[in-house]
Protein 1
Amino acid sequence: MKEISKIDVRGAGLHPWRQPDDQGWFGPYGGRFVPETLMPALAELEEAYRDARKDSAFQARLSHLLRTYVGRPTPITFAGRLSDHLGGARIYLKREDLAHSGAHKINNALGQALLAQRMGKQRIVAETGAGQHGVATATAAALLGIECVVYMGTVDVKRQRPNVFRMQLLGATVRPVDAGSKTLKDAINEAIRDWVTNVRGTYYLLGSALGPHPYPMMVRDFQSVIGREARRQMLDEVGQLPDTLIACVGGGSNAIGLFSAFVEDEDVRLIGVEAGGLGISTGQHAARFADPLRGRLGVLHGTKSYVLQTEDGQIALTHSIAAGLDYASVGPEHALLRDIGRAEYTYATDEEALVAFQMLSEFEGIIPALESAHAVAHAIKLAPQMPRDHIILVNLSGRGDKDLDTVVEALDGKAGGER
Amino acid sequence: MNPSGIERIKAVFERARAESRAAFMPYYVVGYPDLKSSVAVIQTLVEAGADLIEIGVPFSDPLADGPTNQLATQMALQNGISLADVLEAVARLRHQGIDTPMVLMGYYNPFFAYGVEALCRDAAAVGADGIIVPDLPPDVRDGQVLQEHCREQELAFVPLLAPTSTEKRIRLAAGSATGFIYLVSVTGVTGARNRLPADLASFVSRVRALTELPLAVGFGIARTEQAARVAKIADGVVVGSALVRLGMKEHPVTQIHALAAALVGSMRRANS
């Protein structure tokens, strides 16, 4: 198979996406907005991470675990029946749902947990929305024998109960957070408060490409294994690069992990799908880029990016049927990719995600996470408009077992109990 | 020409030093539990002997605050209090003849949404004297912008230091501060605590060795004996949650006056 050469669009050394700069800025986005107590810890973390990145022994250990423990590489699956049904582009799936613990989250959790161990930290704290990052962190902590505390909003505890049990089985302590919107945002607040208090011995294992520098960079790097594998697999197994990539975007770690390997392939279209909730006009959504009224530049949880907020700069409450997308801000690198026109962002509503959830289950025998179902929903919209030789690659970031209660409840509500 | 915010704050610490005591610097949230009573509390704090007031600006996600201040700022937001309302409250207090320095303390996003230049201009216009932003370190790009606009308006830019701060960061804060430096006593969030951290004195002297600026210590100071101990090693003592939690009790103005007066008394005795 011939290797397709990468397109160097800006000439040597001028890639707008070789980001961030040494202060953690992705153009006007990113940075490090945290209480002073954490500034030395972030500097220490950045240094430890840069060392680890260069250390071949660390990288070899991570690769070994990704292969023998996580089960990587995850395959690419051709969604043939779905593609035939839609009658347009051919849809392929990058199967992160088959990674150990059920989602792409493990790639980052394992990488950071190894880093925590290398830094001599005895305790890990994490936040979780859908519970997938919490489960992945609890898994990595169990594997390495590190104490683990996971903060989770009480709304999410209720709607992702199986993941709460999973985390507890894995030996983690789950601390419910009953403040604010009782979802991911509030879980991050509490995790940061814990970290501020226990900063000397505790590692904060942030789960998305968000937060203060170096997290957006580090999480992207650990997730970039998705894109590197997918690019090679498409070339080896399908014989060409995909024409379009589609991934859901909450904080945006699965999307940035996939996009990062293709960002220089200018002919590959990159599409991120945000949570449209009940529709943009209702205000009940988490589509930071799609709501010109409330989605504005702001600072939340240590990073400057698009933030859903009121006119006075108070963080807006968000809604999505997918807990993992239910967040008011978005990773800073996505904001930059959008600005420079390299990636596009759209949204899928709760209802569209539910339809996609059922269609993928029925046509392919794959039950997707509700988060990933947002990406599938956009593929379902796009595919019929494209010719047969157009290839769409959807990042199937997680599996949907955790969502069965939510989906049954939503479908019951809609069908008046018929289903 | 009226003295600038920086000059007025400087005068506070000079006067306290001349009287061989530390400055008493209470924190209170505007709009909690409602706008009217929060203004009354600030007046009573002045009457009880406050040298400088830290005016809390509410934010939906106060990640450096413990439960007491979280609740207070949440109630203020429920009352619809915005940054513009806080500035108006400062203006009203000045109209009532209160000339005690007032420093705005709040998280960055509401300030950023208002516009940093507009904030500094309006803060100076209503008679505020300085700005503290706990989630905006002085070396972050936006922190530098805030410093510039504070300088233009002669407002005090007050950076924070923590027990984890390195020598490099102490020098950085000292180089950027005007007015005073805020020392966070503990690694942790705001809130009354039963005891002071064991390494507080060494933390203060570590900073003292690198700067002449007044040093105010806050976070976790709730009781008279704690305030007295801190008064011996610092130039200013900040008390927040211990006062804020009385805001929900019966007769809050009376109770807050009593605690503030007791704190002032214990701090004076400590250095006499």
Note: The beta strands of chain B are 23-29, 53-56, 102-105, 130-132, 156-157, 160-161, 181-184, 215-218, 236-239.
Protein 2
Amino acid sequence: MLSLIGVPVVLLGLVLRFNPLLVVTVAALVTGLAAGVPPLALIAALGKAFNDARYVSVVFLVLPVVGLMERAGLQARARELVGRLRALTTGRLLLAYLAARQFSAAVGLLSLGGQANMVRPLIAPMAEGAAEAALGPGDANRATEIRAQAAASDNIGAFFGEDIFVALGSVLLIVAVLRQNHLSVEPAAVALWAVPTAIAAFLIHGARLLRLDAWLRRSGRSA
Amino acid sequence: MIRVSAAYDLAGLVFAAIAVASALARGEAKRFANAAFWGLLALSFLAGDRLGNLGNGWLVLGLALIGGLLGLGPAPAMAAEGAPRAARLGSRVFLPLLIIPLVTLVGTASLGLIRPGGAPLVDPKQVTVISLALGVVIALAAAMIMTRLPLTAPVQEARRLLQSVGAAAILPQLLAALGAVFVLAGVGPAIQSLMGAWIPLDNRLAVVMAYCAGMALFTMVVGNAFAAFPIMVAGLGAPLIVGRFGGDAAIMGALGMLSGFCGTLMTPMASHNIIPTALLDLPPWAVIRVQAPTALTLLAVNMTLMALLVFHGR
């Protein structure tokens, strides 16, 4: 039971707004020591897991390209293009991105979208540009809300699309874990049972995105 | 054979160039802390496989101390030059960003088929990451030709973006390491026995609710549904939902993982929320606040679907 001590360490650290790197490192050390792992073996385990997880940080490879094109006016151009299309409101634009993201993830193209290569350079500035074209310049609150909505559309589209694709990532992990527990299932069956939730995710989040336009209009008037 | 280490080497070179540029940025606050942090990360990507587990462990502690205690400096501003060319580039400015997914796509579909002399040219398990790295190289060449900015510009601009993410850049990787320590320390079995003490295990609907909610909650703690899934399946899903009550294993697996994704949407521990918060310059809980209503509704949907479907035919 003592090994659970890392959980309150993480929660307390996050609530008290300590530096997250320190919180996570301390949680890992405290958990390991409480469970009786020798200190050096614990540090080695941390190192091995960190090294094995390097693929997580490969996304930063796109930063030189994104940064260079931002300097060449990428975000301004994205805003300008969207501003010309009057029918393209913030909510409808994000709804279209949600659909495209979910569909492309469902056919295995998870790497087409993403926060670093799509949301920051294109989707967020376009969504802000659409609001600017319709409602005029906004305040910091509006910018925060729109950017957070853009990030959320990417995440929700990716999560509830990828589980429908048979040959990659989560479906294969599900099949592998079930097999470890002596349950044999077909990947196609797992993917099939992800479809109802995927449809629900699109309907629920899509409806919220369409209400975003009304919210933006209201908050624009009161400001 | 081209392995995934080629992509890590490339990322290592980018981090190393950023470290050097940080050290040379005179008058910038904390420039040596910045240089040391990105330098250590470069070392991890370039030489991680040769440092040994303990060496990598000290490296992680070093990163945590520099990033957590010293702290990194603020992001530099974007260089002003280059703006006049923007008008002339027009919509071609989007081209390099479209090259990356396009090459990733074509590469993933085709690189695995190239087998000179019978041996694969590219590690078949890592085709996507390698294709992504290739796409970045081609896109970067195109971007340099189009913008005619100096050769130092991509390093400066990558440094501006990475510095705006700050030390949080390594948090997703560090959280993966925390998950490994949790497994080592036996956190899974501890949670299992804890749940067993609180839940009426002879009621199949209560077990379904506990399994879905447990997936979401445990994912929120460890920041990753993939880490929570094996623990919840071994604890409740396989022995009880399938074993005792005869539920359908595919439904139990699919809807369990999807419940975990609902947890991912609500936790500050997930890289999916950390990275956009940093990249879009948002306050800490902004992304989660937007995602939570959708996540909670979907969790209820998953519980209902599983309660209705998993015991079908029984």
Note: Chain B touches chain A through 144 residues (CB under 8 Å).
Protein 3
Amino acid sequence: MPIQTHHPIVLLTGATGFVGHYLLAKLLEQECRCAVLLRAPLRESQERLRLLLADLNVDLDRQIASGQVIPIEGDLCSELPDVGELQCETIIHAAASTQFDRDGRGEPARTNIDGTARLLRWISQWPVKHFHHVSTAYASGRYDGSIPEKLHEGPREFRNEYERSKWQAERLCQQWAKEAGTSLTIHRPSIIIGAYETGRASKFDGLYLSARATEVFSRMYDADDPARHALSLRLRGRADDCQNLVPVDYVASMIAAAVVRPQMCGRVYHLVHPNPPTNQNISDALNTYFDVHGSHWVSPESFDEMTLSEHERIFNDFSKPISHYFTDTPKFQRDHTAELENAAGLSCGIIDAAAIARLMRHAQSCHWGKKRRSSSVAKVKCSDYFEKFLPLNVVRSQVAKLTGLSVIVRFIIEDEANGQWVCRFERGLLAEVHRGANTLSEDFGYRLTRDVFWQAVNGKVHPQHAFLMGQVHVFGDIERALKMAMILHAFNQEFPFDQGGRQCLLHAS
Amino acid sequence: MPAARLLNQDEQLAESVLIRTSDGELAGELSYTLRPARVGCALMNPHPFMGGQMNNNIIRALAKRLPECDAVTLRFDYSGVGQSTGKPVNVPAAMLAFWETGSAPQDPALIADSRAATRWLHDAIRKPMVIIGYSFGAFAAMQAIHENVVGLVLIAPTLRQHDYTALSKCTLPKLVIYSDNDFATPRDQTQQWITTLQEAESLCIVGGEHFFKGKENEVADACNGFVRSVTIAEGV
């Protein structure tokens, strides 16, 4: 079928999102004129979009100057502007919250349900012919058998609030399209990963959470430490079950392909992989990449959750939000998708060890999407603190003397190589400090990043608040760990490791 | 001068307050809407040694959500915490006792603060009162009951650390919220204890641990439902 040229304006929501900016690049490639809804302040959102598109070799400033991209300031969660003369016949609603559980701001319902309803009210007077809604393959909730490419009736059982909100959003769109007489196309991608060839991603959840845990294991041990090849790690799930991973550029190309082919609109597309990798394939690829071994899959029925090893606790902490996807692995029909692939000449690349290695290389190169702080303190090694500063100052500390504790505490600094220390306190004195995984059995421990660690030891962040904010993970005896956090804070205020602390170390050496 | 903005009746207002006590002043915040108040809710924080401040995730969520059912909420910081004044605490010395027992020397002062705050709120609005305590705050709430209190909510009460047996004689309507994996409020012990209470309903939040991270709205929904039912029963 011929592809339309000189398309009318397409309105895109969620353009700065993971799928959204890839989709915008693909639409521009197809010569679509795109109005993009960007949050206030427009200048900041536009700058963010400019940087994202620059990575994809798209010059946003030039596209705006030529009229191919029309930025509109507005927020689906608050106010949408009056754009009286904008004649959009095609709407692509890609804005979404991927928060799995309900948070204090009311997400994911706030964006996914209320935001969708607000968008539909906003465009109700426009001459819209095609509405494209970017949903998720998991909007079906739990489903027996192969999931069809059609709208799901309720009531349904969902694994989390995200799935529920996306299902409700689909229903809102369906009702609106029916009343407006508009064609509705629903795109349901599965678990989205970085671009196929480059591994580039701008969001690091889903697969990346378990990958991050594997990276932490690799950092826990020196390269030549045999312990890194003998992890005590049972993974809850069936080895042969498949995880449906799809590259973001494939998803974006498929949506753009449907947008420019009106004859293929008005259907549901499962943008899922036809041959997804198994749990075993994925864990093997991650273990190989990070050079750790020893994990094995245990079926949920025979997994004893009462006796977790330290490795298992760490893995669970990281992968908690996605743990049900290891055990509940639905199958998706994709007949419509195959037709669209044929029409557009697209296909989904094989997700093998090489593809996963590309994803990991990119994730590590951009520090898993976390901004790096460049403080002078960050240049100091954590080992200086544990192995020099603590022995020097605990003995002088009134806090340590008054509390007089006998306790063994493990600290795991995630992003420091071999970043694990165990401190044994005996009646308020630091009896011994060991680096690396060792046989000392801790009463409890803390796992945190280097940035949070330095903020805590400088007294800038209260360790208890860092825990409550989710920046510090505690394992072992939680009650004592929180009490100890109070004592550590008092010690950190007594002996902050800032300028004075470093000078103190210089004198000592 | 900017034009004055008319407030919507449903819009929530926050008002900073200072509550005088015999030892100093407690810094607090009232939350309410312009609709006529039907009930006062005094919110009691966890122990200051366990991150107990009025900006705690659960306390903040309750202050935000309870005005939906025409409640005026009061949250406050205990003496010596945040902007609240009071006798200074020797943290390391107090921590020694707290480490071993879960009780610190200044605990009676914290309970006195809770009583003062509850009285203050009632004097300010002259409406029936519900006291809501979280963690150590549940222990404080139990001891702040007075004649105008019509309901009690205990969130993750510290059963392992404190003695709650006195509550078995209390006939006020109660709601106990706990989770299935809480170090301070073991599930089996909690369920057994609930059977000793009169007029008690309960809710177990799966995976809430002691901190209910990500479960704040679930806790607030349950509290809202309880406060509504209590005010209806009281004919307010």
Note: Confidence is low (pLDDT under 50) at residues 1-6, 373-378 of chain A.
